[in-house]
Specification:
single chain; 115 residues; mainly alpha
């Protein structure tokens, strides 16, 4: 059984938790890809969870496996042809991430959503 997460100890941590929950909900709703979501989750300030938290590590794994792919905010710097060539890899990434990231999202929402 997992140990309960401690309460947020400052406003920054509370805001990071709220952002995490919002990101997880957006990923589950299909509004944000798991690829883009992983980039954003990994950029969040500390939320007060263990560095080896398995739910957060799911997004570290996605980010690690896709760090060569351009995030949406920088794709305009790439040629259209290059982005088109990468489309199968983006699709493969989403297919792979959907095998484990939704469960991580659901658990993170349960753990950190305000009651």
């Amino acid at each position: 059984m997992m140990e309960a997460d401690p309460p947020a100890w400052n406003e920054s941590q509370a805001q990071a938790r709220q952002k995490l929950v919002s990101l997880c909900r957006a990923m589950l709703a299909g509004e944000v890809s798991f690829f883009e979501g992983a980039i954003q989750v990994c950029a969040l300030p500390p939320i007060g969870a263990s560095e080896s938290d398995p739910d957060l590590m799911a997004f570290v794994a996605i980010r690690s496996e896709t760090d060569h792919l351009p995030p949406i905010h920088s794709q305009h710097l790439w040629s259209v042809e290059a982005i088109q060539r990468l489309q199968p890899e983006f699709a493969k990434t989403e297919y792979w991430a959907k095998t484990f990231a939704p469960k991580a999202c659901e658990r993170l929402i349960r753990r950190f959503a305000e009651s």
